TrEMBL record:
Protein name per UniProt: Uncharacterized protein
Lineage of the organism: Eukaryota, Metazoa, Spiralia, Lophotrochozoa, Mollusca
Organism: Dreissena polymorpha (Zebra mussel)
Length: 79
């Protein structure tokens, strides 16, 4: 799977979880995080996940903060 254009990391992770439930993965969260790291274009996200060895929830929390901040910065530029 790949993230859809305009899809947030949280939304993509939810799609991955839905798909992973039909598989026999030992640790679904690890597989989801692995896919996120392999498919994201955000190199800073990958660096943080690998360096800090974050579990999925920590990585998703950071991704959400980054995406929310990007939206706010974009909105400020349009004012």
């Amino acid at each position: 799977m790949r993230p859809n254009s305009g899809e947030s990391t949280i939304e993509y992770a939810a799609r991955l979880r839905d798909k992973a439930l039909s598989c026999n993965f030992l640790d679904i969260d690890d597989r989801i995080l692995e896919d996120l790291v392999q498919t994201t274009s955000n190199s800073e996200f990958v660096r943080k996940v690998l360096h800090k060895q974050w579990p999925l929830q920590e990585a998703l929390s950071d991704a959400q903060i980054h995406e929310d901040t990007s939206v706010q910065i974009g909105a400020m530029g349009h004012q």
